[in-house]
TrEMBL record:
A Pfam family this chain is assigned to: CoA_transf_3
Organism of origin: Amycolatopsis eburnea
Keyword annotations from UniProtKB, A to Z: Transferase
Gene3D superfamilies xrefs: Crotonobetainyl-coa:carnitine coa-transferase, domain 1, formyl-coa transferase, domain 3
GO MF, any single term: CoA-transferase activity
Protein name, entry field: CoA transferase
Domain of life: Bacteria
Keyword Transferase on entry: yes
SUPFAM superfamilies: CoA-transferase family III (CaiB/BaiF) (SSF89796)
InterPro entries referenced in this protein's UniProt entry, alphabetically: CoA-transferase_III_domain, CoA-Trfase_fam_III, CoA-Trfase_III_dom3_sf, CoA-Trfase_III_dom_1_sf
């Protein structure tokens, strides 16, 4: 869908590369600009997860892209980059605010020679304001945004979510903003600047509970483990005789039937929120009497909203996950077959596929220089000058 759209990416860590990968999945020609030592994510991976010496953290967010090594402090490097950016459709960057301006690659500078450029900046907190120079990282923003404080049982510590959900949502918002700007440019002929940040993404993730709170509804974390401060019980994870099961939004009239307990008929629908701790404790005691399989069969019969609690081994073999083809296998020349989540959306019944494996450092530097009109001799001279990496 984005075939013919050139995206130049100055991104690192997770938010920026993930946003860029969405565009690459959709067919854009993504050129990842890397320093001579390589992007951060090439040398780091959460649990030291390297396959064949290749970072899984790099592999999960850099497919369908080309890699070009450029020393951004080099005059030759910046000069060639300006030529590349003068013909680009999109620039996406995730440096701290002010870095691109200091390099002479800020939006106001570039728009003078390429007014059609869509310029996307992804940061931790925004390009201005008191936090603009703070390190923007997922778990820090989960804490700052109230997400960690909202998670877990009353009396327990604030609990971050067990995944980089803010990075992932920030990436999706960045890609959404770029697509909107490209659509607007098709009508006006003018590019624009797009900005998103992790703090805004974290608050957007909490649009429902935050809206309740801002309008005077002050929910508290539940001592009995209700998963939300603002929902009636039962809502959350309950222990069974041999495992766990999640129940969602089931009225007391139905609970009386499915749990075969007339106590629930004494809780009027209007009192379900006020008495949610009583309901939760009662449900928890009853579920502990039978194994998970028993409750799944019973809840299915009564059409109670429920789900088993899966770990990642269960997820990888789940029949719906397999049917949806949600896991993509990347045949990497060094790492071998690597499995990662695929592009999450289908278009016309088809999911975007793998056009390029995540690239080696500087793999396409010479190729891109040739596309900019440099002769082989010019390319050799530029590389020899050191601005484009010894491995190019």
């Amino acid at each position: 869908m984005l075939s013919g759209t050139r995206v130049v990416s100055f991104t690192h860590f997770l938010q920026g590369p993930s946003a860029t990968q969405i565009l690459g999945d959709l067919g854009a020609d993504v050129i990842k600009i890397e320093p001579p030592q390589g992007a951060f994510e090439r040398g780091w991976s959460g649990p030291d997860a390297f396959v064949g010496g290749v970072s899984v953290f790099f592999l999960l967010a850099n497919r369908n892209a080309r890699s070009m090594v450029v020393d951004l402090k080099s005059d030759d490097g910046r000069r060639v980059l300006r030529r590349l950016l003068d013909g680009a459709d999109v620039l996406i960057e995730s440096f701290r605010p002010g870095v691109m301006d200091r390099l002479g690659l800020g939006y106001e500078e570039l728009r003078t020679t390429n007014p059609r450029l869509v310029y996307c900046s992804l940061s931790g907190y925004g390009s201005e304001g008191p936090y603009k120079d703070r390190p923007g990282q997922d778990v820090l923003v989960q804490s700052l945004s109230g997400l960690a404080a909202a998670t877990g049982a009353a009396g327990g510590p604030p609990t971050p979510v067990g995944a980089s959900v803010v990075d992932a949502h920030g990436a999706a918002l960045g890609a959404l903003g770029i697509l909107a700007a490209l659509h607007g440019r098709a009508r006006t002929g003018e590019g624009t600047r797009v900005e998103s940040n992790l703090l805004s993404a974290a608050l957007d993730l909490q649009v429902e509970p935050l809206s309740y709170h801002l309008n005077g509804f002050r929910g508290e974390r539940s001592p009995s483990g209700v998963s939300s401060r603002f929902y009636k019980a039962p809502y959350g994870v309950f222990a069974t005789a041999d495992g766990y099961l999640t129940i969602s939004l089931t009225g007391t009239d139905l609970l009386a039937k499915v749990l075969d307990d007339p106590w629930f008929t004494g809780v009027a629908p209007a009192d379900e929120y006020a008495r949610r701790e009583e309901v939760n404790v009662r449900v928890a005691a009853l579920l502990a009497e039978h194994p998970t399989a028993y409750w799944i069969e019973r809840f299915t019969e009564f059409r109670v909203w429920h789900a088993p609690v899966h770990d990642f081994d269960d997820v990888a073999t789940d029949p719906q996950v397999r049917h949806n083809e949600t896991i993509l296998t990347i045949p990497h020349p060094e790492a071998g077959d690597v499995r990662v989540p695929a592009h999450p959306i289908r278009y016309g019944g088809e999911r975007p596929g793998l056009r390029r494996v995540p690239p080696a450092l500087g793999e396409h530097t010479r190729e891109v220089l040739g596309e900019l009109g440099c002769s082989p001799a010019d390319v050799d001279a530029l590389v020899a000058g050191g601005a484009f990496g010894a491995q190019s």
